[in-house]
# Entry
Amino acid sequence: MRPAGPPGLIIAAPRSGAGKTTVTLGLLRALRRRGLAVQPFKCGPDYIDPAFHEVAAGHPSYNLDSWAMGAGLIAALAATASMDAEISVVEGVMGLFDGAAARGQSGSGTTADLASLLGWPVVLVLDVTGQTETAAAVALGCAGYRDDIDIAGVILNRVASARHLGLIAPAFERIKLPVFGAVLRDERIALPERHLGLVQAREIAAIDQHLDRFADVVDAAVDVDAIRRSARSAKVFPATSDERSNESQHHLPPPGQRIALAQDRAFSFMYPHLLRQWRRAGAEIIPFSPLADEAPDDSADAVWLPGGYPELHAGTLASAHSFRAGLRTLAERSIPIHGECGGYMVLGRGLEDADGRRHEMTGLLGLETSFLERKLHLGYRRARLQRDCSLGANGTEVFGHEFHYASTVSVNGDSLVDCRDASGIKVPEQGARQGSTTGTFFHVIDGAAA
# Structure
């Protein structure tokens, strides 16, 4: 049988914008300040929130995504990533039951699917702005909507006053649903945002002060110890061939033995579970910074350019001559080079920023992209590889997620993938391959189960 790991719980809400992230960060930091080892997780394909989780908890945060990940990988990550922790805390995604239109590898990507799969109880964050008893009705509806999840209790958020709380609390007593606390409305407990979500954690100079303030608020308003006691160990999964307990036997093997990985403010969107799996499979990760004009290690046998915000640094990247020359040298030696989203754009010929200025990129792919007219591309992606590449062999099926505002002006070369959305409808994303260089707009998360 597979180890279940420490007790865990999931912070969820009926909708986006209810305050999940703020409450989660405050809870993570409050638990850490009690001397507990806390393992954070994020439900869904998110990069921004896990970076904040890591700062708050002092441990890397891992994504758990039932649409894109197999159940075995989710169970293995939940157990093995938290082996040294005393409690695991997951931040949910969107509303508790919101996800893809169709089922993926082990669910529809909903927070509820993850709660059902792992057996961890849900703490529901309710934005009670403009509500009194209706808040209890919403919570009761969430609690009864599916019988395979357990709502341990609620945190009332954005409460206007003590009188407001007095009008809400009796309804929860009637429905016998615990109220773990009530957080008053406070505009000071917020983080700056950008077009893809919150500003990245490393960009906020006073991030620890922000997180300590969140923890102060949660500690003062919420019964943190009661929430901790509500956590439960995950379900124990049989270690079958279909649900492998060792995530190093993953369906996305490392693209090489020595992997040069671009890592800086322009290239920061890399799923931690992939790096973890590559290392556990014996690969060596060699970081380098294109923004600092560093070339990838010339002994690397693979190069990976993650997504991020290259459009905000396009001028610097265009003048990073050592970086570009190093990439070209490796490409001439047929070393596999792969870019995702922002990395894909940088591997192209040119990138037009939001002001209409074109910046010359590396030119390893025949791709021209533009941010002049913002157009949202968002959703899960199920892709079958049409060429051998860093993602796997021709014919392999992989699961991922696309989220950007860039438009493809032109693209030449071989298409890399046949790409579908969560419902199986074909999408324009085809990626590109030119020699040993490849790229896609979607970020890969997991491979299909064998």
